[in-house]
Amino acid sequence: MKQIAIVICNYNGGMDTVHCIEAVMKNTWKDIDIYVVDNASEDNSVALIENSFGDKVTILHNEENLGGSGGFGRGMRHAVDQGYEYVMLLDNDAFIDTDTIEKLYVYIRAHKEIGIVGAKIMTLNDRERIFDFAKMMQWDKFYDGSEWYGRMDSPETQKPFECDYVAATTAIARREAIIASGGMDEAHFIYYDDIEMCQRIRMSGYKVVCLGTAKAWHRSSLSQRRTNTFAEYYMTRNRYRFYGKYLPEERLEEFADYIIAQAFPYMYGSHYMGREDVYLSNKYIIEDFMNDVRGKARPGRIQTIKSNYKENIAKLIRGKKKIGYYIKETGSEGTARRFVHLVEEIDPEVAIENISKEDAAAYDMVVCFCGHVKDESENILPAVYIDMHNNIVDDWNAYLYFQNYDNAYSFFSHIYKPAILEGIARIREKV
Questions:
Q1: Assign residue 358 a region: left if phi > 0, alpha if psi is -120 to 50, beta otherwise?
Q2: Rounded distance, CA 345 to CA 334, Å?
Q3: 70, 158, 262, 315 - which has most CB atoms within 10 Å?
């Protein structure tokens, strides 16, 4: 029997999956079997794989799309049942270096205390820029991250780093660690599945390491322009569940307050500004989390992004010839730049200038860029407030609506916080 089972999850991957497998076959380490778990693809992926590789690749067919979690989960279970000592997880849009398998395998085999070792993930369209490396859980912020994200590759990263988790993009796990941790929780569907698996591997007594000399290049959907709320829904729903499950008991009320503070500002502003996609997305995330809805999102949960910001700006500047703007709060510069760009695109004849507040009388319209319109108690109408969330206060009704923010927030928290805490309690009872 070969030492390593390589598990690639495919859903409509087309030629990406073929190129991924080709990179595997070019690797220096040959003691491998390749399994592709196909999530009921609707394109010609399966035919492409069969025609390109024949019996060199074994295809495991899922009858429906079970997401990355279900695909990897099935592949890992199959590999463990077949008796493989090591299982390599590989995203179908990741392309490994020629010696990546060998480096990961040699390292984990030489270090019995390590349960899983991951490669350094590089950005496909900027090959020397790091995308994912040596990530840590930010328990104080209820998030995760890496100090290396977005940085150029350097000698500092050419070594092993013990970390909290490695991405399933390219990683090798030890059979015993998979069994001890229970493998991948397939109910995630996608996102945070590898994070929680690494958490359970660590809780089982093993270490998690990212090996800086082993590389893969990833065409991540997270780096592409979003057209819907797919990533936001699954990432946030599963992240909330992770922290609700593993935080110390004494921090759960703080976490519930955090969830409300994350969701409500988007829901309140987007509802008024006509962004039902933003409103419903945040509403569904918080409700599905506290009701522990898992697996594939229910119909209607994933919203198509329908930005109306340009339309709102066009209405705002109609008939104006000379617009002045000033920045009230640091951090609003990007919002101001975007506004200027849109004005120039919508009506190149409009003159727009960065001014001081005292010069407002000389302009048809004045715009103040702030952090959040809810924090602006001063009524500067007919001047306009625009905040970093694209909320706009340009008339008396909008001003009164956002002045009522604190009262609405208190009511929302009064309703939702007990429900969130009850939901967390149910999740923790299942552990």
A1: alpha
A2: 17
A3: 70
Contacts of 373 (CB under 8 A, 6+ apart): 269, 385, 386, 387, 391, 392, 393, 398, 402
206 and 290: one domain?
A: no
Give the side-chain half-sphere CA count within 13 A for 257.
Answer: 6
Domain identity same for 365 and 323: yes
The answer to whether residue 234 sits within a structural domain is yes
Q: Is the peptide bond before 348 cis (omega within 30 degrees of 0)?
A: no
**160 contacts: CB under 8 Å, gap ≥ 6:** 107, 117, 209, 210, 211, 212
Q: Beta partners for 91?
A: 9
Residue 89 bridge partners (DSSP): 7, 171
Cα 227 from Cα 223, distance rounded (Å) = 12
Q: Give the pLDDT score at 423.
A: 97
The gap from C-alpha 409 to its chain's centroid, in whole angstroms, comes to 26
Is 15 part of a structural domain of the chain?
yes
Report how many domains make up the chain: 3
- For the record, the structure tokens of 340 come out as 């200027």
Question: Could you please report the per-residue DSSP string of 123-143?
Answer: ETTEEEEEEE-SBEEETTTTE
Q: What is the pLDDT of residues 279-314, one digit of tens each?
A: 999 999 999 999 999 999 999 999 999 888 999 999
Q: What letters, b where the CB count within 10 A reaches 16 and e where it falls short, cover 235-245?
A: bbbbbbbbbbe
Per the model's pLDDT, the better-predicted residue between 378 and 425 turns out to be 425
Over its C-alpha atoms, the chain yields an Rg (Å, rounded) of: 25
Average pLDDT, stretch 209-221?
92
Number of C-beta neighbours around residue 401 at 10 A: 19
Residue 289 backbone dihedrals phi, psi, to 5 degrees: -65, -50
Kindly state whether residue 399 falls inside one of the protein's structural domains. no
- Whether the pLDDT of residue 222 is over 60: the answer is no
State pTM to two decimals: 0.93
| Helix (H) / strand (E) containing 114 | strand 114-123
Q: Which domain range does residue 77 map to? A: 4-223
Q: How many residues does the chain have?
A: 431
* CATH number, position 352: 3.40.50.11840
Nearest of 393, 396, 359, 352 to residue 376 by alpha carbon:
393
Q: Is 303 helix (H, G, I), strand (E, B) or coil?
A: coil
Average pLDDT score, the chain: 95
Tokens read off for 38: 């196909």
Whole-Å CA distances, 112 to 107, 160, 211: 9, 15, 15
Q: Would you say 117 and 171 are in contact if contact means Cβ atoms under 8 Å apart?
A: yes
- CA dist 427 and 307 (Å) reads 35
